[in-house]
Amino acid sequence: MRRWPVVIVGALVLTACSSGTSAGSGSNNPSSATVTTTATQSGGSSTPGTRNLTDVHVALTPVVSGLKSPVAVAWRAHDTRIFVAEQTGRIRVVSSGGKLSPTPLLQVGPLSHGNEEGLLGITFSPDGSKLYVDYTDAKMDTHVDEYTMHGDAVIPTSRRQVLYVKQPFANHNGGEVTFGPDGMLYVGLGDGGGAGDPDHIGQNLGTLLAKILRIDPNAKGGAAYSIPAGNPFVGRAGARPETWMWGLRNPWRFSFDRKTGDVWIGDVGQDNYEEVDFAPKGDTGVNWGWSAREGLHGYHGGDPPPGSRDPILDVAHTDGSCAIVGGYVYRGKAIPALDGVYLFGDNCEIHIVGVVESGGKVVARRDLGPTAPQLTTFGEDPEGEVYAVTRRGTVYKFTAA
What we know:
Helices cover about 0% and strands about 35% of the residues. The chain has about 400 residues and is an all-beta fold. It has a single domain (about 65-335, about 375-400), classed as Neuraminidase (6 Propeller). A hairpin with a 5-residue loop joins strand 8 and strand 9 (about 140-150). It is globular, with a radius of gyration of 19 Å.
């Protein structure tokens, strides 16, 4: 059975590879000095008159090191600090000068520790007054909890459970939790785990698993959250109204383009392919095809489900990938040539890849040069600058080379 992208506390490590393959097998040390590289073309499909990314030269500059299995990074409105989630349950605080505070903002728990469990995602409400955390409890089930902020600190006793999801297996927990441009809370959940979707959850609208959910996290009428108007399956018999998109195996990081509102999803594959999904602003109810499809291909001969959509690209494991890490469309100012380029990576294939989309198709794709062995996540700050995080404990910022 293929091993999935995991971070295990203690002597165990992050792995995301087919059997016999070690994550981060490259020789680069991510806690070394700034990595500056001129990118080289890697099989792009740029068309005449379209950017081919040859003018993009980027570096990864360390911002902070010394973290323990960091898996998520977030920023808060009107706050210059960086907040980093360690899978062990601690939320660490990094000052604007890159100093790591010895005192965590919060210790989340009790947690299950193993495989893809633990603290998996963090985000703040748009006004910075609330903190939301996504984690697996001691029984391996998923929670999204809310905490109230007071000044620069969190009030631990303010914890309120927003969402609880029973998990059939320990893996494929998703973990992304983020606010969209519409102010609603979006939550990513995998198919519940096990190899090959044994419970046939991928195409089941009656469960919260294998979905991206869209909810209003504010308590209303005795309920912990409410269903926003416009959710695609409201009123449909047999479908969960929280569903925004579905047919996902394990969406390990999705993001909204802050300029266009388009959504990008990195969905971890099964045996042969990783995939990147793209949907323009306004698309809802999209079925991405798992487990009838893996990437652009039938899974065990499966045909595309009626009305399903193919990913914008897939990456074969034969090319060295094993567990995709979805990123962001760059909208910062530090690297003008990178504007509009979607950045993603992989937990085994150490290179950062840039993609240009036009009309729902990839028109340019390139290995941008810098490497990030054992990549776990990306982050985007309030100015649109993008960061990469590695299991080895370093947060990097994309800078011009």
